[in-house]
Amino acid sequence: MINNSKSKIFFSSGKVILSGEHSVVYGEPALISAINLGIKASVEERTKEVNKNSKAGYLNHIFKIFKEKFSSKNLNTDNLEIKVTSNLPRKSGLGSSAAYAHVVFLCLLNHFNLILPEEEIFNLVWQAEKFIHGNSSGTDPSAVVFGGVQIFRKGKRKMLKSFSKMDFILVNSGKPEESTGEMVSLVKTKVESNKNNSKIIKDIGRVTFNMIESIKDKNFDPCLLTQNERLLEKLGVVSLKAKNMIKEIENQGGFAKITGAGGVKKGSGWILAYHPNKDGLKEFLSQNTIESYKIEIK
Predict the structure, then answer these.
(1) pLDDT mean over 146-158
(2) What angle do CA 139, 144, 150 make, to 5 degrees?
(3) Who's near 241: CB < 8 A, 6+ residues apart?
(4) Domain boundaries in the chain?
(5) Which of 58, 69, 97, 234 is the most buried (most CB within 10 A)?
(6) Closest CA relative to residue 293, chosen from 98, 97, 35
(7) Do the domains spanning 2-159 and 166-297 agree at the CATH topology level?
(8) Closest CA to 298 of 176, 150, 151, 84
(9) CATH class of 166-297
């Protein structure tokens, strides 16, 4: 039997990185944005204790963090079940781990009539996400909790309010075989073993800075997407499959880069593409049976 008296549906958006993948881990800025794809969830209270196996892994970890945060209240979560629906692909660089933790925390806060400032919710989501990604930069938690377009650097964010609404296309290059944590570790090894890779990290930071300035001047330069992509390719985080797809988009007059940690063995997750003729690019992708979504960033 289910008690739905406190059931309410919450939503958390996914995210894209416009510029700054991997370099943000080393203190460079990242330009990030929430998107209109995301995860919906509600909490249901059952009269009997929920099977513990249904809370295995990540969800169990999220519950544990929540109970530790409010340890003085002796909260009982044993009979709670989280119901989730999502149009946000998992393990594809769109912030699904952070969005999932965020929406679950929102459900739990509402269920127990608790209130936390957004900054504290951000810290909970960041703590939870480390269970999945290890050395998380905090970009994904910041994007999903605070929304909008943000400059994120060294755990601090600045909202970019001068950003005009823009449409992009997400293109699926295939799910990476590697996890985000594995890709972060790969880059760490590269940076520590080769000074040229440290220079690439700095160069990505400069591209991000230039993109921020172009947006502030309300003159977005899509060529910066291409510059960022070439640096990520030099860093060795883009698969051959994703490189070929990006070249096809460029041949159609577009600009594109991976968005997220990437992947090298098979797919690299989702590609962020910009084209003056969005419908034309979307039609080209459809004709070639390539999965894609129009997204709005504002």
Answers:
(1) 91
(2) 55
(3) 173, 174, 266, 267, 268
(4) 2-159, 166-297
(5) 97
(6) 35
(7) no
(8) 150
(9) alpha beta
Note the pTM of the prediction, 2 decimals: 0.86
Question: Containing H/E element for 124?
Answer: helix 118-133
Q: What is the pLDDT of residues 178-206, one digit of tens each?
A: 988 899 999 999 999 999 999 999 999 99
Closest CA to 293 of 271, 277, 268, 263: 271
**Which tokens go with 275?**
């084209």
Q: Which two tokens stand for residue 269?
A: 């997750």
Furthest C-alpha separation in the chain: 61
With CA atoms as reference, report the closest residue to 225 among 244, 245, 250.
250
Residue recorded with tokens 């249901």: 44
Q: Which residue has the higher pLDDT, 297 or 146?
A: 146
User: 235-258: b or e for each residue (b if 16 or more CB lie within 10 Å)?
Assistant: bebbbebbbebbebbbebebbbbb
- Residue 50, classified by CB atoms within 10 Å of its CB into exposed (0-12), middle (13-18) or buried (19+), is middle
What's the pLDDT tens digit per position in 203-257? 999 999 999 999 888 889 999 999 999 999 999 999 999 999 999 999 999 999 9
Class of domain 2-159: alpha beta
Report how far residue 109's alpha carbon sits from residue 112's, in angstroms, rounded to the nearest whole number.
Answer: 5
Contact 152, 139 (CB under 8 A): yes
Q: Which two tokens stand for residue 190?
A: 């590269």
